[in-house]
Amino acid sequence: MAKETLEEALEMKPNINKAKNLIMFLGDGMGVPTMTAGRIYQGQLKGQRGEENVMELDTFPYVALSKVYNVDAQVPDSAGTGTAYLCGVKTNSGILGLTAASRFGVCKSSYGNEVTSILHRAKKAGKSVGIVTTTRVQHASPGAAYAHSASRDWYSDNEMPASMISDGCKDIAYQLVNNTDINVILGGGRAYMFKSGTPDPEYPDSTSQQALRKDGLNLTDIWLNQRKNAVYVWNKKDFDSVDESKTDYLMGLFEPKDMNYELNRNPDMDPSLAEMTEKAIKILSKNKKGFFLFVEDKSLIDHAHHDGRAKRSLTETVEFDKAIKRAGEITKESETLTVVTADHSHVFSFGGYTDRGTSILGVAPGRGTDNKPYTSIVYGNGPGYNFPNGSRHNITGVDTETDTYRQQAPVPLSSETHGGEDVAILAKGPFAHLFHGIQEQSYIAHVMAYAACLEPYEKCSIKSESLIMYPSTLLPMLTVWGLLVILW
């Protein structure tokens, strides 16, 4: 097997075709330990021992590491990182689509500090663009694709201080509809789109699920009325009935806020991430100039880690991989640059000298110095802390593989924290070879823009074949591009 892999590597040549299509898959919180544990878990679901399993993302030929810190934070948040990998500029924690000159929560500091995303640049070049997420579409990661906000928390005007509204800033949901013209928007977030007090169509008797907007706007109607061949859906039945050949714009909001975990998803009401990804690609790919698509599994990998529940997170990782596989099946690698990465990691790890084939959700073979067993998976902090009477909880006889089991953690927190280590970038397709080494997270947006000849790389065509014949010529070229990354 190793010999065959070497032979394949020796035959690899960089694809220097202009990328017609760009797809970014963002596994929110999917650090390398989560990728590895997800691989094992997926294999064990297939009846394998697990370690030998090959995920779809494992097949991507080019790999790099991304430095995820924010300008003001060693351990980042999803807004600052989203701005980096989507806009090509590192910024402060909690801020969307703005430079680090802006201040968190201060509306006036956003003026003149706006930066544009790869999604916006693709639309400006005539491509169709889309967002697919399992969180609310106004959340930090998708929000960085279209919004300029001094706070990631300003989902609607209900979450904004009155003084910030008076200063002229708009909430993220408003910007979703009125900033970049987005063709496909799929995820959660209904509550931020309608007049406050409007009953939710799926949960009409629940006051906690009612809409939140104070300005009285119906943003979905505004979005529909401004576009031709546009459709809005909120359930699986209507989603399935959408005719891609007759639809140029699709907004699907399937929950009031975040979508449900895959383990809790009602397949009769909410589409899966893979289903949403496929629908988006079928609509976007009608554009002869190509498309840009952002796909995120958020509430989900990240939220489950925050909750200290590894089974939920690993299940979401498996679902994320299904979406990656489906996208690869219905696009051409020769013309589509596909990038898989994470915004940050978590304080999640697994160990304990477990035997080959041990359930990834199981218990290590040894015992601690307190003579008690411990789970292979542990969190560095979080709600899994359980030390009754000052001693560690004895998990003898406890089923550690239930959907809701919280793995052990030594530091008590209501929510487990992000990790600050580098995360992986995996790529295939045109100019995927430019993902190499250890890079700033902002480098991702630059490579994607270059591959598709988007601003500021409109004149990006490489005519010389020396890049193929002499790989050593990459070094001086990448040095130049590295300088551009700093200057942009």
How would you describe the overall organization of this protein?
With 488 residues, this protein is α/β, with parallel strands linked by helices. The chain has 2 domains: 16-347 and 419-472, Alkaline Phosphatase, subunit A (3-Layer(aba) Sandwich); 359-416, no CATH class. It has helices at 2-11, 32-45, 78-87, 118-124, 140-143, 162-166, 172-178, 219-225, 236-241, 273-284, 301-306, 310-329, 443-451, 466-469, 474-487, and strands at 21-27, 62-67, 128-136, 184-188, 230-233, 249-253, 291-297, 336-341, 345-346, 348-350, 363-367, 373-375, 377-379, 418-419, 423-428, 438-440. The strands form 4 sheets. The chain has a 10-stranded mixed sheet, sandwiched between helices. A two-stranded antiparallel ribbon has the order 9-14. A two-stranded antiparallel sheet has the order 10-13. A hairpin with a 5-residue loop joins strand 11 (363-367) and strand 12 (373-375). The radius of gyration is 23 Å and the shape is globular. The active site is at residue 78. It comes from Pelobates cultripes.
